[in-house]
Amino acid sequence: MTHRRGSVLHRNALLLGLIHRCRDERLRKGPRFPPQRAKTGRVGDPFASESLDADTGSGSVSWKLTRSQSGFSLVEFLVVMAILVIVIGVATDGLIQMQKRSRADASKLDMTQEARQFMDQIINDIHQVGYPNTKIFDPAGAPSPNNISAGLVSVTSTSMQFEADVDGSGTVSEVYLQLVIPNAGCPCILQRGTIPKAQVGTGAVPYYTEVNNVTNTAIFDAYDFAGNLIALPASATDLPNIKTIRITVNVQQNSADMNGVRPTVTMVSEAKINN
After folding, report:
1. Rounded to whole angstroms, what are the CA distances from 273 to 33, 149, 237?
2. Which residues have C-beta within 8 Å of that of residue 209, sequence separation ≥ 6?
3. Quick one: which of 31, 52, 175, 249 is 20 to 30 A from 102 by CA?
4. Residue 162 is part of which domain span?
C-alpha cells in the first residue's frame, strides 16, 4: 500500500513539473498567435510605424512624414509658375518674330520676282527694236509700212515708245513703256502696253503688265555707239544714234520688315538695240 502511494505522488510531481515547463516555454516565446494591425493602419505603408504589446497582441500604427517626403509649399509653387511663364513668354516672342521675318522675306521675294520678270520682258522687247526693217525686204516687193518697224519713236526718262516684232509673229507692234506718277508723287507704277502698228491712233493703249511701288522717276538712260550719254528727251536727230538703253528701277516692299522699314530693291539692266 505504501509503495502504491509513493508511485502516485511521484507521477503527479512529474506532471506538475511538465506543466510548469510548458508554461515557461510559452511565456518565453511570446503569444501563440501573431498580433493584428490596428484598423487605422494600411498594409505595406512605408511611412507607418507600429508598436505591439507582447502579452496582449494589441498594437497601434502611426505615420511620420519628414521634410523631404512632404509636398510643395505655396511659395515653391509660385516660383515654379513664374519660371514657366517667363520661359513660355520668351518662346512665344521668338515664334512671333520668326513669323514676321518669314512674311517679310516672302514679300521681298515676290516683289523681286515680279520686278525681274518685268525687266526681262522689256529688255527682250528693246532687243527687237527696228525689226523687221526695210533692209531685209526686196525694194521691189516691200510690204506695207504697217509691217515695217520704224525703230525708236520717243525716249524720255520716264517713257519709251518703239516699234518691233516682239512676239516673232511677223506683225509689227507699237510698244509703250511709261511711268505713271500720282499727284502725290511716288510710289509710282511702271507699265507696259502693246497694240499692232496698224491700230495706232484708233483707240486707247491696253497695258497688260506693270510693276507697283516704284520709288524713282528716272527710269531710262540712253547711250550712243561710243557709250556717251544722250540727253533726254531724245530729239529726232539723236534717236537714230541711240544704241543702248539703261533701265533703273527701285521697287519698295509692300509691307514693313521687323524694324518697321519698307525695304527697297534696286534693279539695273542694259539692253542693246541690235537693228
Report:
1. 118, 13, 17
2. 118, 121, 191, 192
3. 249
4. 102-272
Asked if the structure places residue 153 within a domain, the reply is yes
What are the two backbone dihedrals, phi and then psi, of residue 152, each rounded to the nearest 5 degrees? -70, 135
Give the H or E element holding residue 174.
strand 173-180
Residue 11: what pLDDT? 66
Residue 230 lies in a domain: yes
What is the H or E stretch that residue 212 is in?
A: strand 207-214
Q: Which residue has the cell 509503495?
A: 3
Which pLDDT band holds residue 23 (cuts at 50, 70, 90)? low
Name which residue leads in pLDDT, 217 or 134.
217
- Report whether pLDDT(54) > 80: no
User: Could you tell me if residue 69 is inside a domain?
Assistant: no
- In DSSP terms, 268 is beta-bridged to 248
Q: CA 219 to CA 190: how far, in whole Å?
A: 9
Alpha-carbon gap, residue 130 to 136, rounded angstroms: 11
In a domain, 21, yes or no: no
**Amino acid type, 86:** I
Give the count of domains, the chain.
Answer: 1
